[in-house]
Amino acid sequence: MHAHPHSHFGDIAKQTNRRLAWSVGLTAIFVIVEFIAGAWGNSLALLTDAAHNFTDVIALGLSWYALRLALKPAHARKTFGYHRAGILVALVNSTTLVIIALGIFYEAWHRFLAPPEVNTTVLIGVGGIAFVINLGTALLVKKGSEHDLNLRSAFLHLMGDVVSTLGAVLAGVIILITGWNWLDPFVSVLIGLLILWNAWSILRQSIDILLESTPENIDVKAMVDDVLSIDGVQGVHDLHVWSISENTRMLTAHIRTGDISVSAGSSLQNQINGILLHKYNIQHATLQLECEGCTPSLLYCDIKEVKHTHNDASQVSF
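Predicted structure:
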């Protein structure tokens, strides 16, 4: 009965991998074309977009690899599997976006001081082609990006290109009419600011997950109150809530109860798991039932590193 969902998940992953592969191929080919055109037309906007597209090739390649890696099963060395691979890729992708934006600002500053003449025909023509290709590859990656930080980082890379190429085309049209060559680096600065904005969002979420922060949309107080409202629950302590990936949430907690039987305890755990799953989307909860006086009753456990010397190492059991 459980085989169908896993098979369905595998089919979705294969389709996503196929779309990512197409995106990588199309983007890689156009990077070469756009770089040559940008150098020939003396356009920073096109060279900026070519550099951004090059990072898209890397970002899409990493996202593709992370998706394949996430399908590998858990084992003794990786008991949580490889779900965090996508978060690491999102962190790398967002960091490269920041570096690219800083490079754009540096080059744009020099071009503001001495704006070179821009070949508007090349800028408009190649920029228009780039817009179509970038939009097409972005749409290939968009499906599923709403619920996957890895895919969303790749999608934002591509949408940054869509906006930047559109900006380059508009700048080319205005330069053609007015002769204002300074618009080329000005548009590049706007592109850089947009890249930074998108990068910060992904970077912040990636760091939160890697630091095992509580998911943003979980109200811990309300969740604890819901658990305490269940008949038989007397207290909650040593509570931890975190994410393995954007949509895979984990919880561990000690639940204080009365002196009840094992079967009654199992029923109590099922009730708690039901609330955690349906109301807070926590799919994996580990609950330890305890009677009153077993352990301290701190809601959040104060975890401290314990160092053992050679003298007391023999007393430690695993």
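Summary: The mean pLDDT is 78.
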